[in-house]
């Protein structure tokens, strides 16, 4: 029995809230300011609560996939979590593509879905879908909440899982009766996640071993992946690279993690990477992989990738290390912490024996001189897509945000826009989701209202999610959309030209080039309340881009009519080694054997 006679304050009783009220209050406690969603029967109780909220802005989308991609764009442009909300059944399944996309690209996403009454589950009730089961393979975790008292803990746990370790999507499915019933609201709730202990701090001996390999190497390369951006480690990477003096390549997901203008940067590696970046990896004797996963689009045929290189693989997800390529020095940890430690370890190790990379840089300088990134102008009288995208980047500058769809325009945007900072380049890398561009740009603009935000889209991608232009117009989200309109599914057409003897099977879209223009993108843009422009001549390009940059009272759509014959080069054909990179058709650079 205590003998302490000090009076204690009376504890106030917990507030009684409905489950839907608990959802709203939990989101507010988690610091959520913006959400994207579409209401329906099973999520209606929460929407009734949300209507009165002054702390959270809800953006009503026109399709749940748009909500998911908008939440991704919001997250990828800020480093914060994105939130998407949908009802049960088809509302939830419409989110699946965006959830899978976020899973592949390690985007912190919270998906909240309504579910039928718990008493109806398992009866094939109206709009009943087992969304928890569907999303298990494509989320870090999926929760089913059937009681109002469990709401705060589920949302707090979802937030923690989505934003820590390797970021990713988490789904919380809440039955309608759990939303309607009431229970005491307890915050902060007790979050119990047995077995979930992400390793952040790397083992010191492994870091020292990596530093020793850097000192001993003659042809090292920093292979930088999207994990560096997710870890907010760009400044630390710059310091490490400049201290070591080794070349840097940044993957499609890492564009902007290292400044393009820095002389250490060789460009993007992979299937459509620059020749210096591709062959630097191929000819290296040491690869320091930072937050990258040796994706097939980077390695080409894995058995032929970088045959003489030792591998230091740094990743916060231990499942990635050794999955594709065995690591000589495996390092599990947060990229920022590991880079800081590696920089310090290299500084100490290099005091006794400073490496000399002179011959390596001579070889790389030769590659850069012989194989600069460029393009040829089309001979059919139509616009050059590369030139248009290059001018968008030049006129908008590095402070803008560029979200791309998937296909040729995506590769050209990765190649010909100069990225100087992280969070400026948004795209669907792992899943390759057509339709990502417009809603992702919308989400990025909501998160970054003072930045210029471009959606660089193809005529195929644009037709998948352009309905979100209505969302943009109504909610005053003035994004700019550049449609690189080659009247076809361009990347598929390129493969058909190169590998299927020019048989263009079902890739013509009839959106331009003197056809009936179905649809007419200018009329469509105007119908959505946008400023819409068509550009068919080279001398009209700059004026159209400048007008778009000057227009901030509504979205802008520019229909650029470009050549269907333009191709993405360089290219490593699928299924072969990177040494067979082609600078142009039937033109492969010479690979220097050891």
Explain what this protein looks like in three dimensions.
The protein has 23 helices and 20 strands. The protein is α/β, with parallel strands linked by helices and 594 residues long. The chain folds into three domains: 15-185, Thiamin diphosphate (ThDP)-binding fold, Pyr/PP domains (Rossmann fold), CATH 3.40.50.970; 204-370, Rossmann fold; 385-561, Rossmann fold (3-Layer(aba) Sandwich). A six-stranded parallel beta sheet has the order 3-2-4-5-7-6, with helices on both faces. A six-stranded parallel beta sheet has the order 11-10-9-12-13-14, with helices on both faces. It has a six-stranded parallel beta sheet with strand order 16-15-17-18-20-19, with helices on both faces. Helix 7 (151-163) links the parallel strand 6 (141-145) and strand 7 (169-175). Helix 3 crosses helix 18 and helix 16 (385-396) runs parallel beside helix 23. 56% of the residues are buried. The model is unreliable at 1-6 (pLDDT under 50).
Helix content: 25-40%
Under CATH at level 1, the class of the largest domain stands as Alpha Beta
CATH architecture of the largest domain: 3-Layer(aba) Sandwich
Oligomeric state, counting identical vs distinct chains = single chain
Number of helices: 23
Give me the secondary-structure category: alpha/beta
Question: What would CATH call the homologous superfamily of the largest domain?
Answer: Thiamin diphosphate (ThDP)-binding fold, Pyr/PP domains
Q: In this structure, how is the largest beta sheet organized?
A: 6 strands, parallel
> Using DSSP, what is the number of strands?
20
Shape: globular
Order of strands, main sheet, comes to: 3-2-4-5-7-6
**CATH fold naming of the largest domain:** Rossmann fold
Q: Uncertain spans, ≥5 residues at pLDDT below 50? A: 1-6
Strand residues, percent:
15-25%
- Averaged pLDDT, please? 95
**Number of discrete domains:** 3
Gap between N and C termini, in Å?
Answer: 79 Å
* Radius of gyration from the alpha-carbon trace, in angstroms: 25 Å
């Amino acid at each position: 029995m205590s003998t302490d006679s000090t009076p204690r304050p009376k504890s106030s009783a917990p507030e009684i809230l409905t489950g839907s009220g608990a959802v709203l209050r939990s989101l507010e406690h988690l610091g959520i300011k913006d959400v994207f969603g579409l209401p329906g029967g099973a999520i209606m109780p929460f929407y009734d609560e949300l209507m009165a909220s002054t702390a959270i802005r809800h953006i009503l989308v026109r399709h749940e996939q748009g909500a998911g991609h908008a939440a991704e764009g919001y997250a990828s442009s800020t480093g914060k979590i994105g939130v998407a909300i949908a009802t049960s059944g088809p509302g939830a399944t419409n989110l699946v593509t965006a959830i899978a996309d976020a899973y592949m690209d390690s985007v912190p996403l919270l998906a909240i879905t309504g579910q039928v009454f718990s008493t109806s589950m398992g009866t094939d009730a109206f709009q009943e879908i087992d969304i928890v089961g569907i999303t298990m393979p494509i989320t870090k975790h999926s929760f089913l909440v059937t009681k109002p008292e469990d709401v705060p803990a589920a949302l707090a746990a979802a937030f923690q899982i989505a934003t820590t370790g390797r970021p990713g999507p988490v789904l919380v499915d809440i039955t309608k009766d759990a939303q309607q019933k009431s229970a005491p609201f307890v915050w902060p709730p007790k979050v119990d996640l047995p077995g979930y202990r992400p390793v952040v701090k790397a083992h010191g001996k492994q870091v020292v071993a990596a530093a020793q390999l850097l000192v001993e190497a003659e042809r090292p390369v920093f292979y930088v992946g999207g994990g560096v951006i997710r870890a907010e480690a760009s400044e630390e990477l710059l310091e490490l690279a400049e201290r070591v003096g080794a070349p840097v390549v940044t993957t499609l997901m890492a564009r902007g993690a290292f400044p393009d203008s820095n002389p250490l940067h060789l460009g993007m590696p992979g299937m459509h990477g620059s020749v210096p970046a591709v062959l630097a990896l191929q000819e290296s004797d040491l690869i320091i992989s930072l937050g990258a996963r040796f994706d097939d689009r980077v390695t080409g045929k894995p058995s032929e990738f970088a045959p003489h290189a030792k591998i230091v693989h740094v990743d916060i997800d231990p499942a990635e290390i050794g999955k594709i390529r065995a690591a000589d020095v495996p390092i599990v940890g947060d990229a920022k912490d590991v880079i800081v430690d590696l920089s310090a370890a290299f500084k100490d190790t290099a005091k006794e024996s400073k490496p000399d990379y002179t011959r390596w840089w001579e070889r790389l300088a030769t590659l850069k001189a012989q194989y600069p990134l460029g393009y040829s102008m089309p001979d059919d009288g139509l616009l050059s897509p590369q030139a248009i995208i290059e001018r968008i980047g030049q006129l908008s500058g590095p402070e803008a945000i560029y979200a791309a769809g998937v296909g040729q325009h995506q590769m050209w945007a990765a190649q010909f826009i100069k990225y100087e900072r992280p969070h400026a380049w948004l795209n669907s890398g792992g899943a390759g989701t057509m339709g990502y561009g417009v809603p992702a740009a919308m989400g990025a603009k909501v998160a970054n209202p003072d930045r210029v935000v471009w959606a660089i889209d193809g005529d195929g991608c644009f037709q998948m999610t352009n309905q979100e232009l209505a969302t943009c117009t109504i909610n005053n989200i003035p994004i700019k959309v550049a449609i690189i309109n080659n009247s076809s599914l361009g990347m598929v057409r390129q493969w058909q030209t190169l590998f299927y003897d020019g048989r263009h099977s079902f890739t013509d879209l009839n959106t331009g080039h003197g056809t009936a223009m179905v649809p007419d993108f200018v009329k469509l843009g105007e119908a959505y309340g946008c400023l819409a422009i068509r550009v068919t001549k080279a001398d009209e390009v700059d004026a159209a881009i400048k007008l778009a940059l000057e227009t901030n009272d509504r979205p802008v759509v520019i229909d650029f009519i470009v050549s269907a014959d333009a191709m993405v080069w360089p290219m490593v054909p699928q299924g072969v080694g990177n040494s067979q990179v082609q600078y142009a058709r039937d033109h492969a650079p010479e690979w220097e054997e050891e």
